[in-house]
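Purpose: get a first structural picture of the assembly so the mutagenesis plan has something to point at.
Setup: two entries, given in the order below. No constraints added.
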Amino acid sequence: MEPGRRSRLALLTDLYQFTMAYGYWRAGRHWEPAEFELSFRRCPFQGGFALGAGLGECLAFLRGFSLSQADPRPPPDRAETRVRPDATGGASPTPALKHVSTQPGRLPWGSVKADIEYVRSALPSGTDEAFFDYLRTVDASEVTVAAVPEGSVVFPRVPLLQVKGPLLVVQLLESTLLCLVNYASLVATNAARFRLLAGPDKKLMEMGLRRAQGPDGALSASKYSYVGGFDFTSNVLAGQLYGIPVRGTVAHSYVVSFSALAEVQPRMLAPRAGGEPVDFPCLATTWLERACQLLRVPREGVNEGELAAFVSYAITFPCSFQGLVDTYSVMRSGVPNFCGVALALAQLGYRAIGVRLDSGDLARQAAAIRRMLRACSVQFQLPWFEAVPIAVSNDVSEQSLEAFGTEGSDIDMIGIGTHLVTCPQQPSLGCIYKLVQVNGRPRMKLTEEEEKMTLPGCKAAYRLRDAAGRPFMDLLALADESPPWAGQELEAWVLGASPEALRVIPAAVETLHRTYFKDGQVCEPLPSLPEVRSHAAASLRSLGPAHKRLREPEPYQVAMTEKLHVLLQTLRQASQ
Amino acid sequence: MEPGRRSRLALLTDLYQFTMAYGYWRAGRHWEPAEFELSFRRCPFQGGFALGAGLGECLAFLRGFSLSQADPRPPPDRAETRVRPDATGGASPTPALKHVSTQPGRLPWGSVKADIEYVRSALPSGTDEAFFDYLRTVDASEVTVAAVPEGSVVFPRVPLLQVKGPLLVVQLLESTLLCLVNYASLVATNAARFRLLAGPDKKLMEMGLRRAQGPDGALSASKYSYVGGFDFTSNVLAGQLYGIPVRGTVAHSYVVSFSALAEVQPRMLAPRAGGEPVDFPCLATTWLERACQLLRVPREGVNEGELAAFVSYAITFPCSFQGLVDTYSVMRSGVPNFCGVALALAQLGYRAIGVRLDSGDLARQAAAIRRMLRACSVQFQLPWFEAVPIAVSNDVSEQSLEAFGTEGSDIDMIGIGTHLVTCPQQPSLGCIYKLVQVNGRPRMKLTEEEEKMTLPGCKAAYRLRDAAGRPFMDLLALADESPPWAGQELEAWVLGASPEALRVIPAAVETLHRTYFKDGQVCEPLPSLPEVRSHAAASLRSLGPAHKRLREPEPYQVAMTEKLHVLLQTLRQASQ
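Result (structure tokens, whole complex):
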């Protein structure tokens, strides 16, 4: 692979991975066949499910996995913060990376070492030079990855990824894979919870760019919120890169930047159907007076700067005028101004597309706004006017969304930022990546903390469904067991439940994992982002409502076959 | 600027910025001189201070700010997840970006539009084509940025950045600047709180890579935790890029990958001073027996796989052996095995560098481990042995760190991941970017929510210190007021306090903001990352202890001069 194609994420890992890699290499064990599983221990947000996400990015990382030897280019992950190395630009052959910034004109990038050289400097002196020669040859060409399809509903202890390959290589992949799956799955799950709460009809928009952990956190939030069921993002780059529909109108700064109607430029607007342009500020003023009269709002309390902002915006976007109504007083200024401008537009044949509200009690205000829109609709005989969509945002959380109650039915679209992207109820999923087999021997972590114990051996996982097609159990088996079949009576040891086996008869059995990566290549067609999103919706739809309750859900059963159960007991006893 | 140097972050913004930009342009207002302030409303974590961070990245973004016209390269921020477009690699001229992934071999990147073209597709049809011609010329060459030096202690309502320039341009910068400052400042502040809690002597290591919001979130966490007072990171890429010291040893997977001493390869280790190599597993076994006897631990309960892992690691890194002691039983296996191996090393002249503990009650176990180390130290006459550093990690939070109590004194190093990088106490800082002046007219947002109101006008900020050199007030003045001087009696209206003015006499006055960016260039020498870190430490040191209390701190005073106070009142009244 040419250097320009090398992934620069190989060093996005914890140092101990290299320490261990050296340990394995020194002991001649680096080639031993090993398998790790990536899973999580508990559903996030005290819920009953998670959506598995991040697989596509893991596969891309694997395809490019290798360590650079001498590469003076800045790493792409921060290349957007390059600076021109000098005032004239372009004079230097090595673009400067602006991180540990120095005096203007100095080149911090020049001092960043190539991967191998950097690892050498970070390991104890005396590390065998032949190890670094070996690292130069390392890539993912001998790695095999099986995974649950991206967007699937997943449960604790069931591996999202099964990563097989030479011990040293699969160990080195740990931190990066965790980094790529953890947040993706967490925020997709969070988005799915908002979708469940909002119901299928309300539009949901992700707007967390400014609250995420930097540029990449924000892009991940946009991408995986979309997977989880959001409709739009405010993030233009996410729209450009992923094709997610973007939305956005104006901010308060736009509104406050106007102070009087005299500032509005240009002033003329032609009717939609064509014809003589009219002086739109004048027309809007006339309609504002009528609206004030109808709504019993004192005309003198209406802010003129806000009116000017709305008028200017309407002239600019006559077919997509939306009013942000809470810069001053919502009811005494914002809504009357919106009605004045929207009715003036209506006279010219244009339909306003919405009202936006960004503070205060959103549901109560939305209901009041709807009443005012309805009054205008009746008075001025514009049936569509009462249905003008109301969009709200203001620190919306699961709790505030629940509190909307019946008044919330007047809300058409909800913008969610902080509580979506930062997942404050549980800001990390806590995925783990554990060795389950090495050199043909099943392994497990037998710690004193029961919950931190892992399940040994190479496994297969089956989703068992009832006659209605609802999944009721994920069954973990050893990989060499023959798969269960529909109608078979099975013994299952449910994790975290009584030590007795349960007898179940599935009406249908689905193999959970597919092999996605083999011989250094992606070997299974990957779905597009909208396909992943549809799969997530379908996967959630099939799940029983009791597992989807956001609070105190009924735990979904994850169980072991007898063989796996026996293996676990044997290894536990052997260590005691 | 050549295309290769263009920033690809220009579209990392909210769509409404472009909508507003078009509104301003259409109204002929895009060139109007405007000023925005970036600030926060409340200190994070219910604390009394924040550390301002992210400035260096903001400046780098500004230098490269412009929109691409036609650029088929993948954007650098995700370029690390490129995949080879086909199995042979290198055949295609355009590297594929692996995001909305499709069948292997398809090129999703090929469909990503250049910036300008994408913005055109996202705005309503009918948007004037001349606007896009104008966007092609937009950059930050007319923007001026003044800022508080990076790493400074900062307080609510005092601008971290003051951004001046043509209205359209400075509006477009909003979301990206917020994205770059918000998390940087939040995590630096969080790190500083951990440092205050841990005291100056314990070593603190950031290890949140797998819990952050993707690769960039993780790198930001490493970088700004270091600024806030951490000593190390586990993230190798952060070490490579930023020069932060990295640390790491082994994981449980390394320990469980061994099951018997027979697997240890190679077995021989020479004494440090030179001489005949010895069979190290044998030597360690002998010492393990002595240690078990001394510590009254049954020899048969000691796990042999763990012993093999320690022995192998010690042979690999004889000068830097550290034992991860909690894979099986800490007291009945991990510590005895550590002592056996470390004492065997000691016989050969090597000193073990530490014990690591990753589960259970960390402080209590550390105290018990210290007693065991002390017993060995006395029995085998190795004074240094009792001081072997104990490193701990396991979901450490502010609360658990506080709970360490006196037993915690036996802990030498603390690794913190989730609770550092995700800032669960408050996962976003909530910075805002508000218009304060346009075309010479001061502006403010006069909303019904008092806290969302902004302070109008171009301002200067002064930090007032008492005779002991402690800052006691940040005073906001209009930019055209003459600066206060040391010894002057000043009237100050404290924000959020009584409507009466306070009279204060500062012993010293410091101007808070410096101009960092002018004419498209960084115009002030930028400190290195270690310099930013030192500045943060010094800035925190000078702050009074009452403001640094982690719970219920005394609020630091932020006040206005009479002129600013009068302007605020005037604008409020004018809008009523």
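Chain A has 18 helices and 25 strands.
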